[in-house]
Specification:
This protein is of the alpha/beta class. It is built from 9 helices and 5 strands, in the order H-H-E-H-H-E-H-E-H-H-E-H-E-H.
Length: 233
Amino acid sequence: MERRPLIFILAGCFLYAAFATEFLAASPSAGARRPVIVAFGDSLTAGVNGKSYPSDLQILLDQHGYQYRVENLGVAGDTTTDGLARVPDVIAQHPVLVLLEFGGNDGLRGVPVAEIRDNLEKMIRRLKAAHIPVVLLGITLPPNYGPDYVKPFTAIYPQLASQYHLRLMPFLLIDVYENPKLMPPGSIHPSGAGNQVVARDVFHLIRPLLKKTSNGKHRRQSTKSDGPPHNTP
């Protein structure tokens, strides 16, 4: 008669332990232990009205079984000069990958192309010196800025991707910018649905660089470089 309560108590302990293990695995602290992907850029990365492509990228990674945590370090209004100053903040995250998106605000202000390129190159070099792989997300400008400025500006991204052997999306908004349902007329930012499309494109771009976990251990595909230049999402 004395054994039955003891059995019930032990069974309850085992059930509690199983519940606690499952709860902790789903808790934010467990998510914080995931390898970090930093989305680093301006408002196209930061998002607007609580909608951003990094948030949707996190959803895609989770859905496809990639155990990474996307950290959004986008700041609205940032130029490449601002981004360069924030590189130490990125390195402090110890990311396994950085999605680098800058230059749009510089271009809209008419900053000399050589200065934009120099700042982007310094960011790339500092991140690579810290042994952090970089994926370059490019941008372009409206045609009214003139071909003498737009053409060399747009060329910055494939040039740097080729020089530093980076995977590249030449134009981050390639699949949304002419669709009024994905990018409202007069806006320079995607809608919520547009951010989902951008996240999909970025996901396909970076997927070859990622590995799914096995037995709770993170693995990244071993390559001699961050990957070949990539001109299509």
